[in-house]
Amino acid sequence: MIKRVLPTSLLPLLLCGLAAQVPAQIAAWPAGPGVEIGHEGLPGGLPAAFESSGIAWHPGRNSLLVASDSGLIAELPAGGGAPTVWSLPGDLEGLTIKDPASNLVYVGVESPDSIVEFNLATGSTTGNSWNLTTWMTGPSNEGLEALAYVNGEFWAGLQLNGNIFRFKLMPGGVVQFLGSMPSHLGRADLAGLEWDPCTGVVYALHDTANVLVEYDSNGTFLREYAATGTDQEGVALQHGSPTAAATIWFAQDTGEVTRYEGYPVTPCPPGTWTDLGGGTTGSAGAPHLAGSGPLQGGWSFALDLASAPPGAPMLAALSFASNPIAAFGGTFHALPIASQFILAADGGGGFHIASTWPAGVPSGTTFWFQFIVKDTAHTPQLTLSNGLRATAP
Question: pTM for the whole thing?
């Protein structure tokens, strides 16, 4: 054997060439262990033989929408529970939400590759659909497999080669094709797409490779993680997390949905709660109203009142504007009143209410809250809590 010695000057070129052939390191799965919800055929779960093929989180309904390639759409509570199920004939492979304040959902259909508009309020299609086969199509069971609404566009993933196609959907079934792009490293078997409108991050799930890829809204690669589990068919993220972690769900065609906590995200700026003052003092002190929660659609928020007389009747006022007036020795900020609720303090003179912040509230929208408390042991017998302003981010 003749031994050849490589010139030292060529070593850097060789090393660069080898480096170019080695894919970037795939980071380990960054979230917690999976919790299975809604397994098909089990009590309280998805219907028997339900093959989960696409998934989306609906912040307005605080629920998960799951498609089955057998022609069913199911709505699961985000934390798990019995589903509501509708029929939509076709090979359903993906779904997405355009307006989180709406009941409309857009369903990706394979063979022929198309998008159908479905109304959750009526449990039926709206009659609107868009045929995509002019631009994207694949062999049987390798066509449209993923769908996401991204910054005003619909992104559809082709399972055959992993390419992502961008469209605008117009009235009357008209489709505007905006272009396509290959998946990162040309990976095929693109099974799910998701978009977080707060951070602008797009998530692409590849089943065979078991990889979750992150892009920005322009399609530029950001990072990728080894996806946990197998047979992944869809991905959904709880958008708008005010912290550096969020809940993420995978749909698996073996029939289950798996929830993972602690997936790393860029925090979204929360809304603001502002104490406006204006309260008065009663027999139990000055009733104090406080608010909590990020004021992001689909996330919990709460109102808490303290220092009212035990069991005192109260009127809670909500306003969408503020024309403050002097009242009861203080200042009433929640005027004109848009909604009012008759409530009562608990035995400790407190009150707590929690709910889900509505989706689709425009940034900068402001709400005013204030309580009027009846205090029979004090003169005057009506006292005011401080006014509280909530501003959506």
Answer: 0.87
- Segment 266-286 mean pLDDT: 97
DSSP string of 288-340? EEEEES---TTSEEEEEEESPPTT-EEEEEEESS---EEETTEEE-S-S-SEE
Nearest Cα to 306, choosing from 351, 372, 274, 344?
351
The whole-angstrom separation of Cα 212 and Cα 69 is 22
Calpha distance 383→239 (Å, rounded): 40
The three-state secondary structure class of 184 is helix
- Reading the block at residue 249, the tokens are 């769900």
In angstroms, the CA 334 to CA 319 distance is: 5
Q: Using alpha carbons, select from 197, 241, 198 the residue that is nearest to residue 31.
A: 241
| Length of the chain as a residue count | 393
Binned at pLDDT 50, 70 and 90, residue 25 comes out as confident
Backbone angles phi, psi at 15, to 5 degrees: -65, -40
Average pLDDT of 28-38? 94
* Residue whose structure tokens are 């199911």: 74
Q: Tell me: the pLDDT tens digits for 232-265?
A: 999 999 999 999 999 999 999 888 899 999 999 9
First-last CA distance in the chain: 72
Residue type present at position 23: P
Cβ 132 vs Cβ 169: under 8 Å: no
CB atoms within 10 A of CB 35: 13
Q: In the structure encoding, which two tokens stand for residue 224, read together?
A: 């990728």
Q: For the stretch 246-280, what's the b/e string if a residue is b when 16 or more beta carbons lie within 10 angstroms of its beta carbon? A: bbbbbbbbebbbbbbeebebeebebbebeebebbb
pLDDT at 82: 87
